[in-house]
Amino acid sequence: MSRVLYDLAGADESIRFSPFCWRTKLALAHKNLAFETTPWHFTEKDKIAFSGQSKVPVLVDGEKVVSDSHTIAEYLETTYPNEASLFGEPPARPLTTFIKAWTETVLHPALVPVLLADIHALLTPEDQAYFRQTRKGYYKRSLEDFAAHRAEAITLLNTAMKPLKSTLEKQPFLAGLAPNYADHIVFGALKWATTVSSTTLLEPNGVLERWMNAVLETYGLA
Q: Which segments constitute the GST N-terminal domain (predicted)?
């Protein structure tokens, strides 16, 4: 069965930076499912029109088309039950619910003002125009304004990451002794950051960098 993931890319198509696509790539690896990726750019809405929406990730699994990272995770869990569970035993599933909420309401908002200008610099000219217009419309701030206040944003980001660092100082993964989808969610956010940032955001060989490397090593992706 062919399995293809549409994956957000920069002008250099080796740069894959979507936090949501990274969640899906790790989920597929967790399930031991082989897949190929197809680079996709913000302005290539036509390439994924078959999915009925306009964002990635989009997974084509044989005849099945699934979009949205969490919907894909649920699909993989249901469709491939004989492989390792993405969410762990049922009592542990609320962990993923909390981690998803924390990542999307605390960590992502802390990363956005740090990363927006850097993301823009990595895009194709067509995507740059789209990105500038849509982000100005959504955040009501220019990319230049975000860049001018980047130092303050990094301070706030470091504060937001304190509970994450504290947890990973006490245990190897968010899910415990091995990673699961809770780890995938946070990994996606930090991989987004480390891929696009023009400055170092994580302490070299610090607890977060070591955890990210351990996640990749678990799935043979290091």
A: 8-84
Q: 153-205 pLDDT, tens per residue?
A: 999 999 999 999 999 999 999 999 999 999 999 999 999 999 999 999 999 99
pLDDT at 1: 61
How far apart are the C-alpha atoms of 18 and 24, rounded to whole Å?
A: 10
Structural domains of the chain, with CATH: 3-79 (3.40.30.10), 92-218 (1.20.1050.10)
In sign, the C-alpha dihedral spanning 116, 118, 124, 126 is positive
Q: In what order do the strands lie in the sheet with 64-67?
A: 36-40, 3-8, 58-61, 64-67
Q: What is the C-alpha separation between 61 and 75, in angstroms, rounded?
A: 10
Would you say the pTM of this structure is higher than 0.90? yes
For residues 168-200, b (16+ Cβ closer than 10 Å) or e, as one string? beeebbbbeeebbbbbbbbbbbbbbbebbbeee
